[in-house]
Amino acid sequence: MTSLSPDAASVACQIDHTLLKPEATAADVTALIAEAIELGTYSVCVSPSMLPLTIPAGADLKVAVVCGFPSGKHHSAVKAAEAALAIEQGADEIDMVIDIGAAEAGRFGDVQADISAVRASIPAPKLLKVIIESAALTDAEIVAVCLAAVAAGADFVKTSTGFHPAGGATEHAVRLMKRTVGDQAQVKASGGVRSFDDALAMIAAGASRLGVSGSASLLSGATPAVPTGAY
Question: Active site: which residues (predicted)?
Answer without folding.
Answer: 95, 158, 188
